[in-house]
Design goal:
There is one protein chain. The chain is an alpha+beta fold. Helices cover 52% and strands 16% of the residues. The chain contains 27 helices and 20 strands. A 7-stranded antiparallel β-sheet has the order 6-5-4-10-9-8-7. Strands 12-11-15-14-13 form a 5-stranded antiparallel β-sheet. A hairpin with a 5-residue loop joins strand 11 (240-244) and strand 12 (250-253). Helix 2 (106-113) runs antiparallel to helix 3, helix 16 packs antiparallel against helix 17 and helix 24 crosses helix 27 (738-745). It is rod-shaped and about 170 Å long. The relative contact order is 0.05.
């Protein structure tokens, strides 16, 4: 053994083994250090596996194995019961013959009562032969008289001394024949042949009170081997047995037993036996059967081996499953922790919790910055615009999206305020207006506001409790005073009616707009409620008399009445300002008549109608909405599938929503986003995103051609809350900017 160069060399006789010893290091590589999180994942998996294995072990040992053992023992009891029945049926032969001899057989009785003679003896012997012939169980029958020295058998007549000394050997045989007057009628005694070769079990039947042979004893000899063959048959592997009488005396046994066996098992000569007992139905005997456990419980041992193998396989599969589960659940967590700069030996959950807390703080900080930025304000304006356009079926649905922007609405009623700004600045100072609203309306009347229609118009949605309209009116008057006195802002406010159903929000916007338009006659610093407006027409005015019956007419009649009214205005060359007022009155009558529901797009477009022809087209659109023009893919496809029709219907209804997304469309249609994209592409040849963009731009072109609506409102009307995104997309599709398109088509 030589130490050299930091290594230990061992020279053996047959080969040279090299042992490497690194200074200051361990020979065996240490297991990598595990974190607390690793064991938090591992321990429940292992505990679950061990619990499952333990449950199976308990089930197999205390139910399955027990039931299997009971089933095996029941089978053996049934088999041994048949053996006992055979023995009892054979024993029954003894008492049948006894009854024949002592009570029934008249020939035997006549022979027995006749005088002694050789012929009498021969006849008795023959009669015994006849009785014994059918039985394979009884080896010999003997009749012993008390006062006679003769013993009659089926073979010959013997003297008592010869019979009991030479032919058969009894232990204490005088005792057997003693006590004729006792009540004991039956005695079982062991005996053997005279030469000691054959062992017998002798059934000694003393005469009963009904016997006609009052002074004779009947003896039936059965070979002990017959009982032993029943107790331990050749086809029963290793089975042993014994017969005991009611006094605990051993009658026959295949094993050397000293006393009756107690308990359910017995160990004898190194072999363990199962003990099964069966009572005799003829005598007071008890049959005891001994079955070697190693043989008769072998199915249980095999079952236990199978269960053991199954448990080992289960543990192996459980270990593989735990390994896979740790790979699926823990490793990504560990890799994420390492990717985020955490310690490989630390607590991953704590590290991730710290990271999540840090990211949450950063997200909250960025969210605060976003809410204070123009983009954040644009998101709020877009959400409020979607609400005013009627894109939400309920305030609960609106609150789901508004919660992230702190714009939730939790009041049962609402009113719309339209503020007309009169000031030197081109735009309304939002911070000042926000402060004034907070100061006057407070938390009792939460409100959301944004620019609308034109820079000098502000729409404000106010929430209130039921029955608080008068208080809100007083607060709005206070708002006008605070704006003028403290912030130098001049407004006229139009106030709509109070509503609860979100479906009336567009009508409320129209009412507030119509009310604020009255500033022309009411002046500044005024609060004008829609219910205060004069909604009746002056019948003395020749131009308006044609619209007197408009609310009661059908849509076709209303359209014809409006057409005649407009033709009259054109023919009479009514001044433009007055003609526009007349047209607005006509539209107001249509909306108030409930002949057709007002829509948000109609509400926003009406403020930008420029000619009476535009008004006529607008009214026709309200009364007879034209269906959406099918795109090229629909024209080529004669029969649109049901699913494709649902997709077109959903897009037509929601394309102008600023929050429209492929995922939301897939969720509403009950599909996955990938399947929706692939299906639409396969059916139409175009992507769903491109189709929605084209639909939006087509709508924008219509608004640019027929109205002077500001580009920001046009952008939000078709689903773009960001004006730059709208302009970029418009130019990408049409090749020109929205302004260039408007100049070219107006």
């Amino acid at each position: 053994m030589v130490h050299k160069n930091g290594k230990l060399w061992y020279n053996g006789s047959h080969k040279k083994q090299k042992w490497i010893v690194f200074y200051g290091r361990e020979v065996m590589r240490r297991m990598p250090q595990r974190s607390k999180t690793y064991y938090r994942y591992l321990i429940p998996y292992v505990a679950l596996l061990l619990a499952a294995v333990l449950a199976l072990v308990l089930f197999s040992q205390f139910f399955f194995i027990v039931q299997l053992k009971e089933s095996l023992l029941d089978t053996q009891r049934s088999r041994l019961g048949q053996t006992v029945q055979q023995l009892d049926s054979e024993l029954q032969q003894i008492y049948t013959i006894d009854y024949q001899i002592s009570s029934v057989n008249e020939n035997f009785l006549s022979y027995y009562l006749s005088e002694n003679s050789p012929m009498r003896d021969l006849r008795l012997v023959n009669e015994f032969k006849n009785l014994l012939a059918p039985s394979t169980f009884i080896a010999e029958i003997a009749l012993v008289e008390r006062d006679s020295e003769s013993v009659y058998t089926s073979t010959a007549v013997y003297s008592k001394r010869l019979f009991f000394d030479s032919i058969y050997a009894f232990d204490d045989w005088p005792e057997v024949l003693a006590g004729y007057d006792t009540q004991l009628q039956r005695v079982v005694w062991p005996a053997s042949s005279g030469n000691g070769g054959t062992r017998y079990i002798v059934f000694i039947n003393r005469p009963s009170v009904f016997s006609r042979l009052r002074d004779a004893v009947q003896m039936y000899f059965v070979e002990e081997a017959h009982f032993l063959s029943r107790l331990a048959p050749e086809d029963a592997l290793g089975q042993q047995g014994a017969i005991w009488d009611g006094q605990g005396r051993l009658i026959a046994s295949t094993l050397p037993l000293d006393a009756p066996v107690t308990g359910d098992s017995l160990r004898l000569d190194g072999t363990r036996y199962l003990v099964l007992r069966q009572p005799s139905s003829v005598l007071d005997w008890s049959y005891t059967f001994l079955l070697p456990e190693s043989i008769y419980l072998e199915p249980i041992h095999r079952a236990q081996v199978v269960v053991l193998v199954f448990m080992l396989v289960l543990l192996a599969l459980g270990a593989l499953l735990i390994h896979y589960a740790m790979k699926v659940s823990y490793r990504p967590l560990q890799e994420l922790t390492l990717a985020l700069g955490g310690s490989p030996h630390g607590d991953e959950l704590e590290s991730l919790r710290d990271v999540v807390d840090s990211l949450s703080k950063q997200n909250e900080r960025m969210r605060s910055q976003l809410m204070c930025s123009p983009d954040g304000q644009a998101l709020k304006d877009a959400l409020l615009f979607s609400l005013l356009k009627g894109k939400f079926s309920s305030f609960e649905r609106y609150n789901q999206e508004a919660r992230a922007l702190d714009m939730t609405f939790d009041k049962p009623c609402y009113q719309v305020l339209m503020l007309r700004y009169f000031g030197q600045e081109e735009e309304v100072p939002r911070p000042k207006l926000s402060a004034a609203l907070e100061q006057t309306l407070g938390s009792d009347f939460p409100c959301r506001f944004r620019d609308l229609f034109e820079p000098s118009m502000i729409v404000c949605l106010v929430g209130l409790e039921q029955g608080a309209e008068a208080e809100l009116t007083a607060r709005c008057r206070r708002l006008l005073e605070v704006c003028a006195q403290e912030y130098g802002l001049s407004f006229t406010i139009g106030m709509s009616e109070c509503y609860q159903d979100i479906g009336h929000i567009s009508a409320a916007c129209f009412e507030a707009t119509q009310a604020v338009r009255e500033y022309f006659t009411r002046g500044r610093h005024q609060l004008i409620a829609y219910r205060e407006l004069n909604h009746t027409l002056d019948s003395q005015t020749d131009y308006l008399s044609e619209l007197r019956d408009l609310p009661g007419q059908s849509p076709a009649q209303q359209l014809e009445s409006i057409r005649r009214f407009i033709d009259t205005l054109v023919a009479q060359k009514v001044p433009s300002l007055l003609a526009k007022s007349y047209c607005n009155s006509a539209v107001q009558l249509l909306i108030s008549s409930a002949a057709c529901p007002v829509r948000a797009d109609d509400l926003f477009a009406i403020n930008y109608l420029r000619t009476v022809d535009d008004y006529l087209s607008f009214v026709q659109h309200m009364l007879q909405p034209e269906p959406e023009r099918p795109d090229e893919a629909q024209e080529e496809q004669q029969s649109v599938s049901e699913l494709l029709g649902r997709i077109y219907a959903y897009v037509a209804e929601n394309y102008d929503d600023c929050n429209f997304s492929l995922q939301d469309a897939a969720d509403k249609l009950g599909l996955s986003s990938s399947y929706l994209s692939q299906y639409f592409k396969q059916q139409t040849g175009d992507t769903l995103t491109s189709y929605v963009a084209a639909l939006r731009i087509r709508k924008a072109c219509s608004l640019l051609e027929t109205t002077n609506m500001p580009l920001q409102i046009v952008s939000e009307s078709i689903g773009y809350y960001n004006l730059n995104s709208f302009i970029r997309r418009f130019k990408q599709i049409t090749g020109v900017t929205p302004g260039e398109w408007r100049r070219a088509h107006q």
